[in-house]
Hints:
The radius of gyration is 20 Å and the shape is globular. Helix 1 (3-34) runs antiparallel to helix 2 and helix 1 packs across helix 3. A hairpin with a 5-residue loop joins strand 4 (137-142) and strand 5 (148-154). It folds into two domains: 3-111, no CATH class; 115-269, no CATH class. Strands 3-6-7 form a three-stranded antiparallel β-sheet. It has a two-stranded antiparallel sheet with strand order 1-2. Strands 4-5 form a two-stranded antiparallel sheet. It is 36% helix and 17% strand. The protein is built from nine helices and seven strands; from the N terminus they run H-H-H-E-E-H-E-E-E-E-E-H-H-H-H-H. The protein is α+β, with helices and mostly antiparallel strands. This is Recombinase RecT. It comes from Kurthia populi. Residues 1-20, 272-310 are annotated as: Disordered. InterPro entries: RecT_fam (IPR018330). Pfam families: RecT (PF03837).
Amino acid sequence: xxxxxxxxxxxxQQNKKQNSMVTQVAERITEMRQQGxxxxxxxxxxxxxxxxxxxxxxxxxxxxxTPLIEKVTPDxxxxxxxxxxxxxxxxxxxxxxxxxxxxxxxxxxxxxxxxAVLRRLTNVKDMWANVIWKGEEFEVxxxxxxxxxxxxxxxxxxxxxxxxxxxxxAYCIIERTDGTQYxxxxxxxxxxxxxxxxxxxxxxxxxxxEMAKRTVINRASKTFLxxxxxxxxxxxxxxxxxxxEYDNERDYVVEAQAIQQEIDANANQGDxxxxxxxxxxxxxxxxEEIPEGQQGLFDAPTTSNEDDPF
Length: 310
């Protein structure tokens, strides 16, 4: 068989594999949607998002000659693709990326993906987060209900140096549909404790401002996930996806709040997907940055670069 014929045959087999995997996951997503288990955004095409994701998994470049999909198990690919689709996210929009941990594919949300999925919760109207820099004035108070409430933040644009050592904290405000606002504040010491168990430490060190906001958003959202009227399937998927970012998230979660990572030990065994193999707990790997130009694809370990992962 000539090289050209071999290449054509490989392409045909790859197309068949893609069509089979995308069809399988898309059919499952459609079934869950019809049964009322999930409620995807009106403008979200699961098929298009799955096809774009599969394309990134099969892509190669100068640094990675072997596509990521060939380094992981097929069942883990199906789980990761479904985790992305259930949350209504797309790697093409840089709302998440895929990571290989010891032969198992996992989906992780980006900063933008985390914002998008939280705004999808039925009891959340809006949310925002800010970093508190050295020299800025930040005030909170307890309201008549004994809850910590935002009083004021006098920002200084010159204080925003972008350096981790100049960040003294971050806060997130989540507004419910009834207009009630909930404040979560973290000191930089708390944020760094959270980062100490993360698999993305190099990214956090390089982009401390955005990652600090993302960390406080994660913590703030726990209450809303646990009290949400959204389906258990969506909440469990949000939990599991965020948990993928941490080696042992329970080492730093306090009672107040933390997003999805502190899901109990059996959460990853939930009967959500309907494939043969259940997703595995993440394992420790080398901390690496997100590669440039791979549209959300992340194979650990890899080389670092200047691409903004958010």
